[in-house]
Design brief:
The chain is an alpha/beta fold. The chain folds into 3 domains: 97 residues, Elongation Factor Tu (Ef-tu), domain 3 (Beta Barrel), CATH 2.40.30; 130 residues, Rossmann fold (3-Layer(aba) Sandwich), CATH 3.40.50.80; 104 residues, Ubiquitin-like (UB roll) (Roll), CATH 3.10.20.30. It contains 8 helices and 18 strands. Strand 1 and strand 2 form a beta hairpin. Helix 4 packs across helix 5. The longest helix has 14 residues. The N and C termini lie close together (12 Å).
Length: 358
């Protein structure tokens, strides 16, 4: 289960008009538990207006710097992001769970001349910054190219830090800024990533067959467009890594969710294995997913986004069947092995056994 720790905020500051950076003063006794790989996220918890809210935010710091930082962009009617951007201050205390997540790869300890590329849109830069800083510092022969999309120059998150990295790694780090609401002198750098733009990039700035790994973070449509174009240009699909930022359900997602709910079975006998203990309850018609039903029955289970994105609520199906309304986090291999996201899992059998200990 999620173990939350009360951690003091060592720094809270505005990065842009609508984005706040939080730094955590992780005590010495928790540093081993809070070890992280670049690309991972922290789950934060707070009681806001009487509501227990949890959200996951990617670490933008590098583990090499013994720092824990996240950047939170305020979104329209976002309860947690508004709280962070308008209420939090240095010295406050937040509940924080240890880092988790599968995005990113381990740094190469063989000092090979690896070629990396990264694509980010807006706040999708947060895990990228951690990944870029760590690989450049750990791999003295590695090179990185960042393709970074924002609305305007003023909205570019971490621009000063990115420019400082360019100066530090003059021959190994290149940055290409793309703007959607301001005009650049070079037409290629105007507007969002599309098929034509990607083909131009793979013909000029990206040598796909000789790119070892690509990292993408942004909206679903952008991610899969870029992935497919990189693969078409010669990259191995398994070397294209991505983290989704989901801003809303697509029509296809809504159709999948509706189809799953049509198969829902009421009165399900559920057994949850968590921490080597079993929890039993009956899931009735009041809840359409396993996680909400379990929490209502008194179970203390890990979760964060409740949208099928972060994988915090991942568990393994031992007996019975479920239909996931959406799935933005699990790979095809994980689904084949029986893993499900409990926050979007609709029960489709009268008996259900799931294990959180695997």
């Amino acid at each position: 289960m999620n173990t939350f720790h009360n951690i003091t905020l060592s720094q809270v500051y505005k990065e842009t008009e609508d984005t706040t950076v939080i730094a955590f003063d992780v005590p010495q006794e928790l540093k081993e538990e809070f070890n992280y790989r670049p690309g991972q996220f922290l789950t934060l918890r707070a009681i806001i207006n009487g509501e227990d809210l949890r959200r996951s935010y990617s670490l933008c710091s590098s583990p090499l710097d013994d720092e824990w930082k996240v950047a939170v962009k305020e979104i329209f009617e976002g309860k947690f992001s508004t709280y962070v951007n308008r209420k939090l201050k240095t010295g406050d205390v937040l509940q924080v769970a240890a880092p988790s997540g599968d995005f990113g790869i381990e740094a190469d300890d063989k000092n090979e001349a690896k070629n990396y590329i990264a694509f980010a849109a807006g706040s999708g830069i947060t895990p990228m910054l951690s990944i870029i800083k760590t690989h450049l510092a750990s791999e003295p022969n590695a090179k990185f190219k960042l393709f970074y999309l924002n609305r305007t120059v003023k909205s570019i998150i971490f621009k000063e830090e990115i420019e400082a990295l360019k100066n530090m790694y003059l021959s190994r780090f290149e940055v290409f800024y793309f703007l959607s609401r301001e005009r650049r002198d070079i037409p290629l750098f105007n507007g969002r990533f599309d098929q034509e733009k990607m083909q131009a990039l793979t013909q000029t700035l990206i040598n796909a067959p000789h790119t070892d790994h690509a990292f993408i973070c942004g909206p679903e449509e952008m991610i899969f467009l870029i992935r497919d174009e990189l693969v078409a240009a010669g990259m191995k699909k398994e070397n294209v890594h991505f983290e989704l930022f989901v801003s809303g359900l697509s029509d296809a997602d809504k159709a999948r969710a509706a189809a799953a709910l049509e198969k829902k079975v009421d009165g399900v006998d559920v057994t949850i294995i968590d921490g080597s203990k079993e929890f039993h309850f009956v899931l009735g018609k009041d809840f359409d997913n396993l996680l909400d039903g379990a929490i209502n029955a008194g179970a203390d289970l890990p979760y964060a986004c409740k949208g099928g994105v972060c994988s915090t609520c991942k568990c393994k199906l031992v007996e019975g069947s479920v239909e996931m309304k959406v799935n933005y986090a699990l790979t095809d291999e994980e689904v084949e092995k029986g893993f499900v996201l409990s926050c979007v899992s609709v029960p489709t059998s009268k008996k259900l056994v799931v294990n959180y200990d695997v």
